[in-house]
Amino acid sequence: GQQVMQIPQYQHVQEGEDFTTYCNSSTTLSNIQWYKQRPGGHPVFLIQLVKSGEVKKQKRLTFQFGEAKKNSSLHITATQTTDVGTYFCAGELRGGSQGNLIFGKGTKLSVKP
Amino acid sequence: DSGVTQTPKHLITATGQRVTLRCSPRSGDLSVYWYQQSLDQGLQFLIQYYNGEERAKGNILERFSAQQFPDLHSELNLSSLELGDSALYFCASSVGAVPYEQYFGPGTRLTVT
């Protein structure tokens, strides 16, 4: 079936270091969304990317959508302890009637102060 | 607080039993989505309802069913429960029919013993 792969599964960083998580789809996506789930919490919507090659920034977070609309990345500059959590990408298939999101398994980020 | 409510927060039941999980979407949202989150499978999309009608179906077992009522709240029914059904069940809502910017509820943790 359709899959969205996300790497790495875990990332441990020292506070102040950068962090990147990557998302790859086996098929072309209509759009990709990113969510953050804090420990013990629920996923929270961060952003949606729609256009090929799109780059969006939210303060220290930079989101990219690949030219082929099959991959995406989230980069955090100078991590802080408040960035701790699991980051999920979720892709919506292009042209599909499913209308559903396929979530990656997430990258769990821990930040050592 | 996302504005999405789910009850109950926790549920402990025995194998073979049937349970009902309830979700109230954010005010104004017409779509409700159900997800199952387990440690090894990540977030799995189960089903979506839009304005009372089933719109998209994911990896939902035949033992599971859902519905959305005229007041837009939704219920997920899980029957003939198995140990493997133990998981966190999230409900999410969005304004329109497409799965953009979903707001997740706090989840129901189901433990099957």
Question: Overview of this structure, please?
Answer:
The complex is a heterodimer of chains A (113) and B (113). Chain A has 113 residues and is mainly beta. Chain A has strands at residues 4-7, 10-14, 19-25, 29-37, 43-49, 55-58, 61-65, 71-76, 85-93, 101-103, 107-112. In chain A, the strands form 2 sheets. In chain A, strands 2, 4, 5, 9, 10 and 11 form a 6-stranded mixed β-sheet that branches. Chain A has a 5-stranded antiparallel β-sheet with strand order 1-3-8-7-6, with no helix packed on it. In chain A, strand 7 and strand 8 form a beta hairpin. Chain A is globular and about 45 Å long. Chain B is an all-beta fold and 113 residues long. Helices cover 0% and strands 53% of the residues of chain B. Chain B has no helices and 11 strands. In chain B, the strands form 2 sheets. In chain B, strands 2, 4, 5, 6, 9, 10 and 11 form a 7-stranded mixed β-sheet that branches. Chain B is globular. The N and C termini of chain B lie far apart (31 Å). Chain A binds chain B through residues 31, 33, 35, 41-45, 48, 88, 90, 92, 97-106, and chain B through 2, 33, 35, 41-45, 48, 55-58, 90, 92, 97-107.
